[in-house]
Amino acid sequence: MAGVLGIYGLIVAIIISGGVSAPLAGVGNTYSQYTGWAHLAAGLCCGLTCLAAGGATGIAGEVGIIASGLRAELNHAKSNRGMMGGGSSEIVDEGDAGKLYIGSVTILSFSGAIGLYGFIVALIITSSDYYGCV
């Protein structure tokens, strides 16, 4: 998941570098100030949203692993208590672990979508050029 966020930044950097042009002899500067600010905004938009998406992915992944570990520890404690004679000897249902995993993966995909939205906005910003007063 996190590798895709880096690819978003690489794609935006390639698109921005393709839009930068050197001044032509006798014509002047063809790279307007508007285009420069638009490219800066696109890079910041993609970079900061991918940074936020990476942080959200890390936090969501950590919480999902901790929750899975706590669930496994609870199941282990329930099964040991039944063998000691202090409680019922029922087998612990593992069906809730699948629900926990599905919820964790869903949250991870939503956190990665933040970077995708920033990438789309960066593409929209870089698609507009202005060649008026330079």
Automatic annotation (TrEMBL):
The keyword Transmembrane helix applies. It comes from the Eukaryota. Keywords: Ion transport, Membrane, Transmembrane, Transmembrane helix, Transport. InterPro entries: F/V-ATP_Csub_sf. The chain crosses the membrane at residues 6-25, 37-60, 100-125. Belongs to the V-ATPase proteolipid subunit family. This is V-type proton ATPase proteolipid subunit. It comes from Cyclophora tenuis (Marine diatom). The lineage of its organism: Eukaryota, Sar, Stramenopiles, Ochrophyta, Bacillariophyta.
